[in-house]
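Example record for the data management plan.
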Amino acid sequence: MQLKYLWGIAKTIPTKQFVGYWGFDSQLEMLLDKLTISGNYHRLISENNTGLIVSISAGGTSSLDAWVEVQHDCLILAREPFGKFPLYWLQLPKVVWFASHFQLLLPLITPIVNTSALYGYSCFSYVPTPLTPVEGIYSVAAGTKQIFRGGESSSEVFYQWQTLPQISINEDEAITQLPGLLKNSIERQVADLPDEPVGVLLSGGLDSSIVAALLVQAGVKVRAYTLDFGAFGMPEYPYAAQVATHLHIPLIKVAATPRKIKAALVATVKALGLPFGDGVTVPLYLLCQAASEETRIIFNGEGGDQLFAGWTNKPIIAASVYNSEHPGGTADFTEQYLRTFRRLYGYESRVFQFGVGFDQPRTWIENALDSSFSHNLMDRLRRATLMLKGAQNIHPRATNLAFAHGLWVRSPFCDLPLAEWTFRLPGDLLLRGACEKYILKRAVESWLPPDIVWREKRGMGVPLTEWCLGELWSMVGSWLNPGILLEEGRFLPQLPLQVILGKLGGQIRGRRVGEILWLLIMWQVWRTHVLGEKPTRRSLNNPFYLPYWFWKFGH
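Corresponding structural encoding:
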């Protein structure tokens, strides 16, 4: 019998990693030897295994978070719409390779940085799908299938977040229905739990507090983990402690000091695989590390902001209202949305040593902002947040950080029946005046202390500016040395100092200074420890040898 297509997969369960191939090449054995993953390869002739499916779950459940399907001469790679489990692919002349972790595919090629992906990272703090930072390696977008047939490949969207026909429902009816939907989501996720404690990453915010309350109501043994930034930033620990006391669950405080952040930086970047420039990643790595000492499964509250119109929607709604009343307003809707990422979009000529297509970010977000899928502005924003900030950033990084510590991670707000119910609600039940997540708060106000339910939402107060200009100043200099940036040939050498001195732009000041410096540091750590680029040049006139106070008061 003539051998037409081979396919195989190897996996290591403890680290939740797998890599596979589809096709046939005389160089296959040599390519397999290059891979760094352990495990046995199972080879199958696809013609004799029609409909074969290998599924992967971020939470260790039977759900299909991502899957690989073989049908005769066709390979299908797919991800569910919330984007919890990442999936990457690389197409060589006769073989398609796919993997759960980006870096597993790097040994198969000579990696070249994709400058468009780097530009996207500078705008969003993550690399927009389907790009990855390396040319030739791609990410399967959430809610899509990547189909390979013969030598051709195509992408097919199988789930579009969209507004469903609105239900005739008043506030009281919604308050009655929502708790049942939340409890149903939890029941689906705890049905297979062993009789041992699970962890909850408890920030003290509404979403993670609801998840903790639901688990307690379901009779699950719960241990909560929260971050303590000490004297830095905005303290969240007291709110988490209040929730833990109210629910009668133990609370473990995890210190996130500059020393611990510095020590865990490289390990975090390796765990993430791709560069993620958000400052919460290393603190979340520390949380997962602490939880892994006592449990095998963790729950989080990720996804609540996306479903129930969290606090990040209010600025753009206000801007849209202003522009509708003032036709000569500051920017169009796409431009306004790009600015909500608060990174380096709009500063390109002062950021890069190379030219980039300044219109690219619009193409990366236009589908998510497509008004034809939404009846109103609120649903349009929620759809965009689910597809962009949720599926491309929050959920995949949460999965990889958990996997790095041998944990399964479950996100009860990533529940399709619950999500589709929210897309049938009128907008005023989500945002009532200045109160975001209004209907969620009303539905759970008897479960938690009023201070937790009704306090004004804030993002996680990671004190990046205080760290970067204080105890981590030497680390900033070691990663963002002008000589290193000059040698790299991507970012302008003077960029970090321009950010520190407030000379890059009027919007980059205060907490934004630390956010931009951290974005740049995470890229440098990624290219050094994941991509393998080793900087060799150091500037003899390194401005970071001098303390921050010199630059502050001397310029």
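Summary line stored alongside the record: Residues 124 and 341 are 6 Å apart (CA to CA).
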